[in-house]
Structures are given as structure tokens and as C-alpha cells.
Amino acid sequence: MSALLKFLRALPLVLACLAGAATAAPIQVTDVLGRQVALPGPAHRVVLAQARHFQVLSLLAPDPAALLAGWSDEFRTSFAPDYEVALKRFPALAQVPVVGRHTPDSFSVERTLALRPDLVVMTATFAGLAPGQPASESPLIGRLEAAGVPVIVIDFFIRPMENTVPSLRALGRAIGQADRTEAFIAFYQRHMRTVAERLADLPADRRPPVFVHAHAGSTDCCNSPGTGTFNEMIAYAGGHNIGADVLKSATGKLNFEYINARAPQVYVATGTGSRKGTGLAIGAGVSEADARASLARLIEANRLGALPAVRSGNSHGIWHAFNDSPLHVVFIEALAHWIHPDRFADVDPAGTLREINERFLAVPLEGTYLVDLKPGAGPGAR
Asked: Which domains are seen in the chain, by residue range?
């Protein structure tokens, strides 16, 4: 085939691309730090500094894999079962370059720039910023922006109740998915509003003590949320996080004596199911029976059987990755049901997850993501 013929055959595609580039309108978004970030058009080559946020992309984009220019290795390692499911749906994920682990010290600016991204997404903590510290003081953001790469800062972890919607809106607009994003935001706000309205008249003395056993069984007893993150969700759902009384960071460890002395009325173990034989078996590909058996084993192994929550049957397991994602709406509904079953008898968090799977997630969450120690004790279901 002559060079001229090849050129003529390719010409329509070239002209279409040029036309698209010419008509793409500039985009300006506001991230959670209040920064105005300008992009020449929708981002098509995105680097995720923390690959856990792939599932946020999965909410907002019908083909999240096509947007990825690079990511950290943590989705493949820390969330291995979920990665395998995503890989089956989007085989191109196997070819996404890794720019580091999920820690700032391992993140390679040079490798990132070599991928020619048109957007990098990270959290303020990853950028090395303390609460209230301006983005201009982040060397990492500074190096990327000096090279002409826009950076947006998102947060679903430190202040999830405040930052989830602005984070979604910033990322959704940046990737040209504003309508899809607004549809999910409306869904999210409707469900969150239901929980808030039903607890509006809750007296302060009706907030029972709750113990969230984070990454249960994968470490010595017992990891717990402190301030922020799960603490905000527990409070939103009408409970009192016993970890927040002694832990002044986002996470920490509670000793056995303290947990027993606080006599939690609700016990919730979390896990990702990524390490076989340790921790809570939950998440992608896990049956309800296996999740329940795993929950019973770790309660026994950690000598937690005497807790009021366990004796009364108010003990549960849930997928830990709900915590750094707008999918925490499922966790909050489950908590609300477990803490105040009289007020939330008709709320079905498993049903909420099914609707999210059907309407929004490009990679649906299929497996057991919340479970009760005793069948029928709560809303846990596949």
C-alpha cells in the first residue's frame, strides 16, 4: 500500500481528533484545598498516586482503565481480590505502569512525568501537607505543576463528611464526567440525608459505645479508628467510637483491658480479604458463610467473646475499603442499622450496594461486603 493511500485512509481519524481537540473547552475545578485547577480539556491520562482511588474512578467513568496513565501498586497488593475482578473486566489494567508504592517516599516524579499525564490525583497527606497547610508548601505538587502537570487534591479519609462531595465533583469534572458524577452525588446525598434526619432528635445519652476493630485479626489486638475517618462515620450513624477517647490520630491500637472496660454495645470488624488465612475474610468472591465463620474465628482468637456486643449478637464484619471512598455511605447505613435498629429497620445497606453496582460502578462489588455474626441479626447480605 502506498504511503499516500495510507495517509488518505488515516485522514478522517486525524481530522476527527483535531476537531475534538479544537472543540474541547477548558475545564476549571476546585479541589478540597480550595485550589482552582485549570485543565485545557477533560483529562485522558490520569495518574493515581494511591491506586485505592481506582474505585472512585470506577464510580465516575464507564471505562476507568482507559483513563489510567499510571498508578501505585497498592490496588494489586493490598486489594488483590478486587484487583483480580477488575482485571477480568478491564484486562488493560495489567499494563498500567506503576509509579511507586502507596507511600509518598516511594512515588517517582520522574517516572510519572515520563508517562505524560494530563492529571495527577493525590491526597493532602500524600502531598506532605498538614491540615490547613497551603498547597504551595508541598514540594511534590510544586514539582509536578512546574512541569505543567495539573494536580487535584481529594479526600475521603481525613474529613469524609466534609470533603466527599467536593472531591467527587472535582474529579468528575476533571475527567469530563460531570453529569454521571452529579447523578451519583444526588444518590449519595439522598441516602446520607435519610440517616441524618432520622437521628436529628437523638439525645446525647443515646449514643452507645461502638468498637470498630480495624483490619481485625491481621495484627495483634486491637487496631481501632481514632479521630477522623471511621470516627466521623460512627458519630454520623449515632454511635460513640470508644477509640476516639484515647487515640488522637486517625488510627491506633487499643489494649484488651480498655476494650473490655468500655463494654461496647456494637462490635464491627473490618478487613479487605487480601491475606488468606489471616484477618477477616470479606469482599470479592467471599461467600456469606465463609465471612461469618471468619468473623467467629477472629472474635475467639482475640478473646472478645465476653463483650456485650458479642453476647447480645450485635457483632458484624464489613469491608474495610468502604472507609476511603464515597462508598462509605454503605458503611454508614449498616452502622446506623446496627446501632439503632428501631430507627433503621427498613434501611437496607446491602440493597444500597446493589443499586450502586447496577447504576454506577464500572467494576461492581460482587461477594460479601457486610455480614452478621448471627444470621438475621442485621442487614448483612450478599
From this structure: 27-175 (3.40.50.1980), 205-373 (3.40.50.1980)
pLDDT number for residue 294: 94
The pLDDT of residue 280: 93
Q: Where are the beta strands (DSSP E) in the chain?
A: 27-30, 36-39, 46-48, 68-72, 98-100, 119-122, 151-153, 209-213, 223-225, 240-241, 251-253, 266-271, 283-284, 315-319, 367-368, 370-372
Q: Classify 131 as helix, strand or coil.
A: coil
Position 221 scores a pLDDT of 87
Q: What is the CA radius of gyration of the chain?
A: 22
What is the C-alpha to C-alpha distance for residues 314 and 322, in angstroms, rounded to an integer?
Answer: 20
| DSSP state for residue 215 in the 8-state scheme | T
Kindly give the pairing relationship between strand 223-225 and strand 251-253.
antiparallel
Return the pLDDT at 23.
54
Cα 205 to Cα 182: distance, rounded to the nearest angstrom: 37
Cα dist from 92 to 56, 65, 79, 82, 102, whole Å:
18, 7, 17, 15, 21
**pTM of the full predicted structure?**
0.89
C-alpha cell at position 86: 477488575
Peptide bond into 221 cis (omega under 30): no
Residues in a beta bridge with 371: 317
- C-alpha–C-alpha distance, residues 157 and 337, integer Å: 22
Dist. CA 218–CA 225, nearest whole Å: 15
DSSP code for 200: T
Q: 266: which strand partners?
A: 210
Q: Which residues of the chain have pLDDT under 50?
A: 1, 4-22, 380-382
Query: Which grid cell is 126?
Result: 500524600
The answer to whether 73 and 111 are in contact (CB under 8 A) is: no
- Please give the Cα distance from 80 to 377 (Å, whole number): 30
Q: Could you read off the pLDDT of 107-121 as tens digits, one per residue?
A: 999 999 999 999 999
